[in-house]
Write a sequence for this structure.
């Protein structure tokens, strides 16, 4: 196809601003799908995405549009996630495009992830087309949002007013896409240069590689090379997504599609890889992607230790479609063999666990999430500790540092006092306030990452009646007075429940944690002593009483010594159970640590 008629674009926005709905409308309007094939959130093909109403994976699709100038254009669209935990999916998609549709909800206005995604798109040098969506809502503030786009985000181009649900503004948007977004550069005759922006695993075809061609062409039978690993393969099949996979004879520069090469090992292909021909290679690789930096670490273990082999096969397959997941094998005295995984956030962790359970039929338990702390030893050596159980002995530590983030909190002006109190309670350091219009402001705070891991975003939404939003970036490590808080059951430390906390909060957290665990751990046949301790010093204790059984029920008369004999026998049995019995921990116990 004539390259001047090709347009590569993606949709970026804050979560729940209508990206997937707009993608549905564009597919219907361009005839990529018929009304009979249509369903809501068509590009969200995971059950999890449809149930939660969020996009987790970026999805590519090809459309043909006949514009008012009579020419038929080829549009390659990528629908991206909006949640901050899946920002790596957005970063990958931006590299494969020349333009981006910046979608803003007319009722919610500019939010934190809107700003973050816009800066990412500008950094890559994309053409931005602003779109104000949901203009049909009774609460829509179209003029206010238009002002915010001009003043706060410095976007001078006129926004397209649309309602993806009602189909308003879709024709105008398509005309703007073909008019404003430049066609891809690159030459058909040049050596092949293709960027891998995603991949998936198919049981029959092996690894399916999703790529964007910047130069050259690609067809089945070609011998290709991965430039970073130097691995060579033969292309079995090339194709496009429209929106289902369709086989093609050839992919040429500027196009987006997929190839299969009968690659059976998922670890051989990584996102950001450059593909070229073996016989006529290109001189230099494409820039690729910055590696994702995990912010939250947690252990994932199979409930049945025999399932570890299955888990070991599944993790690399999941990493194919989720390049931001890091995993390495870990051995725990409590759970046996498993993986220590790095995630971009708590929602990311939750989604990974659920995908492993649904897609591969595993039954898993996840340990308490933690961040990476930096430990300076007495001999000057520096260690990175992501698992509290790996923390060295307190006597050999000179000092500790914890990661800090710069948090951008966008909230209505009326809720600013509450939001500031929340941030201060989380040990936040105030930096600045910037007004984004008459009624909204952005507060900038520096906060320890461990403080915002769990429920900070939920509390922000509650405090601002759903209008608040948050984005953050890691800014480095700072010294802190930290201690390891251990949880003991009947004198035995439980490794997965150990946490690192600030010294001044240790007593309060230990007390809350012990009483919370008392509520969630079920009664067993023996008494359980739950203790919170710092080193050898116990700071709090709770007791789960043993389950009672009336062993004297069968004695309906006779000498008292008969009953006493049965009670003494039961007492001995319980003492033995307490010595050898294992405390069964439900997943709620780990969730309890989070809530505290």
């Amino acid at each position: 196809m004539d390259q001047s008629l090709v347009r590569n674009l993606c949709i970026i926005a804050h979560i729940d601003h209508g990206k997937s709905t707009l993608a549905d409308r564009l597919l219907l309007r361009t005839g990529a799908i018929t009304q009979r094939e249509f369903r809501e959130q068509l590009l969200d093909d995971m059950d999890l995405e449809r149930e939660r109403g969020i996009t987790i994976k970026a999805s590519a699709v090809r459309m043909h549009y006949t514009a008012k100038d009579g020419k038929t254009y080829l549009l390659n669209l990528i629908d991206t996630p909006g949640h901050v935990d899946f920002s790596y999916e957005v970063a990958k998609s931006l590299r494969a495009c020349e333009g981006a549709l910046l979608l803003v909800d007319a009722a919610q206005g500019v939010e934190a992830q809107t700003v973050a995604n816009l800066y990412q798109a500008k950094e890559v040098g994309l053409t931005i087309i602003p779109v104000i969506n949901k203009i049909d809502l009774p609460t829509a503030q179209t003029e206010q949002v238009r002002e915010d786009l001009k003043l706060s985000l410095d976007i001078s181009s006129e926004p397209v007013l649309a309602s993806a649900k009602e189909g308003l503004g879709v024709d105008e948007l398509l005309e703007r896409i073909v008019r404003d977004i430049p066609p891809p550069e690159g030459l058909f005759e040049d050596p092949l240069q293709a960027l891998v922006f995603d991949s998936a695993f198919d049981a029959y075809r092996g690894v399916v590689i999703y790529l964007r061609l910047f130069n050259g062409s690609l067809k089945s039978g070609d011998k290709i090379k991965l430039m970073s690993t130097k691995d060579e393969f033969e292309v079995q099949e090339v194709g496009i997504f429209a929106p289902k996979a369709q086989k093609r004879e050839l992919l040429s520069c500027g196009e987006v599609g997929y190839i299969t090469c009968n690659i059976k090992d998922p670890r051989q292909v990584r996102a950001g890889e450059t593909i070229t021909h073996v016989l006529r290679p290109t001189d230099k690789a494409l820039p690729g992607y910055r590696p994702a930096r995990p912010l939250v670490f947690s252990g994932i273990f199979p409930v049945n230790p025999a399932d570890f082999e299955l888990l070991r096969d599944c993790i690399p397959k999941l990493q194919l479609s989720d390049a931001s997941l890091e995993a390495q094998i870990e051995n725990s005295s409590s759970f046996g063999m498993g993986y220590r995984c790095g995630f971009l956030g708590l929602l990311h962790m939750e989604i990974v666990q659920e995908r492993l359970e649904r897609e591969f039929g595993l039954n898993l338990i996840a340990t308490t999430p933690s961040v990476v702390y930096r430990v300076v030893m007495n001999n000057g050596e520096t260690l990175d500790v992501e698992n509290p159980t790996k923390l060295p002995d307190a006597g050999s530590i000179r000092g500790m540092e914890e990661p800090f983030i710069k948090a951008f909190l966008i909230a209505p002006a009326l809720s600013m006092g509450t939001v500031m109190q929340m941030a201060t309670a989380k040990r936040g350091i105030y930096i600045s306030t910037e007004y984004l219009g008459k009624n909204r402001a952005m507060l900038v705070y520096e906060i320890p990452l461990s403080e915002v891991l769990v429920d900070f975003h939920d509390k922000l939404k509650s405090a601002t009646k759903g209008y608040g939003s948050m984005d953050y970036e890691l800014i480095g490590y700072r010294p802190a007075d930290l201690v390891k808080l251990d949880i003991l059951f009947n004198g035995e430390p439980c490794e997965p429940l150990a946490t690192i906390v600030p010294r001044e909060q240790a007593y309060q957290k230990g007390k809350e944690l012990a009483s919370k665990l008392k509520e969630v751990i079920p009664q067993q046949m023996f008494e359980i002593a739950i203790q919170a301790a710092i080193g050898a010093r116990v700071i709090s204790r709770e007791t789960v009483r043993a389950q009672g059984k009336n062993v004297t029920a069968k004695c309906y008369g006779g000498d008292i010594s008969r009953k006493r004999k049965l009670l003494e026998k039961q007492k001995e049995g319980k003492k033995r159970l307490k010595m050898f019995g294992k405390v069964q921990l439900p997943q709620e116990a780990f969730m309890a640590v989070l809530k505290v």
User: Anything to note?
Assistant: The domain at 484-595 is CATH 3.30.70.2570 (Alpha-Beta Plaits). The chain has 14 helices and 31 strands. The mean pLDDT is 81. Residues 195 and 507 are 52 Å apart (CA to CA).
